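Quick one: structure tokens for this chain, please?
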Amino acid sequence: MPTALQRGNVIKRAWSVGVAVAVAAALVAPAAAPAASENAALDWYRYAGQEINRAAEMRAQPQRARLEMAMVQGAAYDAVNAIARNHEPYLVAPRAQRWYSEDAAAASAAYRIVIALLPGRQPALDPRYERSLAAIPDGAAKTGGIRVGEEAAAAMLAARAADGRDGPRQPVFGTEPGVWRPTPPAFAVAPMAWVGDVEPFVMPSAGRLGTRGPNRLTSGAYAKDLNETKELGAANSATRTREQTEIALYWDRAPWGDILVSLVESQNLNTAETARLLAMVSLAGADAEITCVNEKNYWNTWRPITAIREADTGSNPATRPDPTWMPLIDTPGFPEYPAGHTCGSGAIVGVLQSFFGTDRIAFSATSRGTGTTRSFTSFSQALQEVIDSRVWGGIHFRTADEVGARIGKRVAQWATSRYFKPVRNG
């Protein structure tokens, strides 16, 4: 059996923009979908995640996955909620009877969004859609649910038709101290700068949660961050523990999608509850991504590998350069501050805490990157591991991780306090 460090070296050698896609998509996409269950909202979260994840890898556009999943889950929620009538709609509430099939509505909404986004995948999705509908008795309830799902999907597609996806913004490189530039060994540049200009799903603007920026290069806080990452995030670190190495590699492909599936199942959520939870997570996660990239574009800060190798250029006597320093995990091809991984994870944790009304729910999950399973007693415990993991992986400074998590939590608070509010059924 390979050790954690040996697995880490494999991950390091394999890193490319494509692996960056897998990291981002793992925040929203569960593992390969099984056969249809009795909860179409959960089934189509799996089906959509599988297809959108695959497409993101092929197009080398990591952040697109989160935006597209938000469209899928927002439409599925509106469709199911139009029938259940328990909460306020996100975009629309198509005309529906309470006895319409929620499962038909969820399947139809998600299916229509995915084939609109990925028309070439319709032949692969048609059998799954047919199986979902075959599990529902024929009749007016099924027909009505299908119509409601199609109307919710049409509303979502219309609302997002000109939302800024694939905009013209390009990355900006620099050579000055503190400014981002592509990093070794691949010098990859991920095509993602446009994400920061996309119209948010729930936030009023991408700049609403703007931050005060990273630590000044001459500050003691900056030196503290740099020296921590330099010591604990190095590929050949002598002080990083075996468990810290395992945590860094575990969260590099964060199993949040599988965690969401397990929570739906372990907490016995019905179709309407599932659709609401997945919409809340997906919409907040998308806006955390948009906000984070907007901030990355604005501050455009260098990554630890550059900062550590060129530490003698920042006029900080508490930092010393190491021109051969390498991180445990090779660096993604975009600016450092704030950390995108913790932005997304913070949003997920914030939604889960709000949805379940508690932080303390125990769960376990297996990382697709390491094949190892970790167990947690609370959502916040998992988020703290994510924050630590990016330092121990050598690709972030702690300040960027902590700021990213705060951005995600604030987006979640905005989404859960202004959307998805319960209504009194008449």
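The longest strand covers residues 363-366.
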